[in-house]
Amino acid sequence: WWDRVRPAPEDPIIGVTEAFLSDSSPFKINLGEGAYRDDEGKPVVLECVRKAQAKIAGSEFLELVSATVGSNLVEECVKLAYGKDSNFVKERKFAGIQALSGTGACRLFAEFQRRFYPESRIYLPIPTWPNHHNIWRDAQVPQSTFRYYNNSTKRLEFSAILDDIKNAPDGSFFLLHPCAHNPTGIDPTEEQWQEISYHLKVKNHFPFFDMAYQGIASGNLDKDAKAIQILVEDGHLVACAQSFSKNMGLYGHRVGCLSVLCADNKQAKAVRSQFQQIVRAMYSSPPVHGILLVSTILNDPELRKLWEEELEVITSRIMRMRVVLHQTLEELNSSLSWDHITNQVGMFCFSGLSPEQVEQLRSRFHVYVTHDGRISMGAVTTSNVEYLANAIHEVTKR
Ligand code: LMR
Description:
The chain is an alpha/beta fold and 398 residues long. The protein contains 16 helices and 13 strands.
């Protein structure tokens, strides 16, 4: 048995962490995975999570709590994504289900897409989070890509996005990052979202949002969901994957939600029953503890406010590190422009470093970033930023 099995290729993100862990240098820094750290470089348990934990202590393993808590979580998630005053939310014209974080929500949707629209394709931005390719591949949905980012200008390739939308076969599915695009950190403006929305509608394409970083682009939850709301107001039925891995620091708990807007309640019930059937056959139901933590925070006005304050702290710390990194590279008299470091938003800096330069960062300086040059700004701190700037300068100077 198993002779036919060859090792799978290394994951472009998790593989970086594995290499980091086996490096014995005291100088090593892991800027691969998008995990937030405090200014001391320590993983953060948010205060709102600690308080929620204390509040639910003792009640978390009750049987059947899962279904009620799960539906409350979905209820709160759709308010976060579509706005609490959205008619879809008020009239319950949505099908939602708790999911194993953003990956689980995407996988569930991909499965649903293949079952009900087997002739459709998914269009993924270039670049995107690499796991999107794996997820739709494993669900056996045909994939295409659309241009998103221009490597030379380090800006959005806006006219190319529109051209690719126009050239896709009618009724295609488009995966969009509503905020803090991973890996580029570049989001369309509101006006650009309106144009994107218009062209998607002309072609009857379906917008699927993967929102893994709500609150981490601007520090404001509503603002970061604006793209979704623009498309919904423009008449699209959309779907959305949500994750609490980053914005509540609950990566290990796998808490998320998949929701799809529907024409009416009847449709919503049908879609939800299909989600339930897919989940039932795959893993039956998700673990309840993380769901309980998130729904406790979202339902308690004090904890919710605390969460929002903590999100502001996270985003401003990341922004401060962007400013210091940029400034330090200038002080080192780098001949290159590093303005994109501060123009980008969210967890990542898409540095523009080549794979060779990334390799040198690793071999000469023990600094670990992904092969595409993505730097996780969430792990840059006051004490490592100068070392990082110097390493970047050394591998890029001519
Ligand atoms: C990332 O892009 O680094 C994060 O989304 C972590 C992951 O699961 O890949």
